[in-house]
Structures are given as C-alpha cells and as structure tokens.
Specification:
Length: 153
C-alpha cells in the first residue's frame, strides 16, 4: 500500500473519531445522530475504506459511556459487514447505503438492548432515521468529492 493511501486512510479514521467525539452527547445513546456516519458510504469506493471506518469506530467507541465488548467488538463487526455489503452492491448505491444503514441500526439497537435493556424496535426506528439521512447525504457528498478531486479509488 502506498504511503499516500495510508495517510488518507489515517485521515479518514481520525475524522470519523473527531466528528463522533466532538458531538459525543448525541453520538451515543438511544436517540443518536452520529455525524461521522456520513463517511460510511466510502465503502462503495473501495474495500480499503472499510478498514479505516472500522478503526475509527473502535477508537470513537472508546469514548462511549457504555464502552465494552458490544461497542468494541460487535459494532466493528457490524460496521465491517455493512461496509462489505455496500461494497458488493456498489453498482446500486441507493440500495447499498440503505442496507448499510439498516445493518448499523440493527447493531446499535442490539447493543443498546444488551447494554441498557433499551427496547429494540424503538431504538432501531430512532437510529434508522438518522442513519438513513446520514448515509444518503454522505453518499451524495462522497460522490461529489470523488468526481471533482484527485482522491484515489
């Protein structure tokens, strides 16, 4: 892997962490709006971005009030699964990002159910709304960035 690629992946990781921690109160919990999720559609642009997103998620989740195995093991697995599904469906970007949002929402709802006994379906619905908005906005932004910049795919 080129040094430039490693640097870009490091920046993606750092930006995911910064965007999550900067708004920490609303990036964690039953009702959450984790702005960093706009970066998740990077998975459509290449598998290498999935790794950066997973590492960013792990680091960001270390700041969670409920940090534990669900945040540090289960959610990164769900992030990777969602990223892989998105990558495989990259030819249908709307479907890819919608499924990624659903997978993350299932993961968050499961995590909050196990950790806080939060009602699964209420949490799933709440998180799904923000995930769908952020993923689809992110997809448009990322498409624009890749179209008009010299970012490697």
């Amino acid at each position: 892997m080129k040094t430039k690629t490693i640097a870009i992946l490091g920046l993606i990781t750092a930006l995911y962490v910064a965007l999550t921690v900067a708004i920490a109160p609303i990036g964690f919990g039953i009702v959450q709006f984790r702005v960093a999720e706009v970066m998740k559609p990077l998975a459509l642009k290449g598998k290498k971005y999935i790794i950066a997103l997973i590492i960013g998620l792990v680091i960001a989740n270390m700041f969670s009030p409920s940090v534990g195995a669900m945040e540090l093991v289960f959610m990164p697995i769900m992030c990777g699964l969602g990223g892989l599904v998105s990558y495989l469906l990259r030819g249908k970007p709307f479907i890819a990002t919608t499924l990624y949002a659903v997978i993350i929402s299932i993961g968050v709802a499961t995590t909050l159910l196990v950790t806080f006994n939060a009602p699964f379906w209420i949490t799933f619905a709440s998180v799904s709304i923000s995930e769908l908005i952020l993923m689809h906005v992110g997809r448009v932004l990322i498409d624009y960035i890749f179209r008009y910049s010299k970012v490697e795919k």
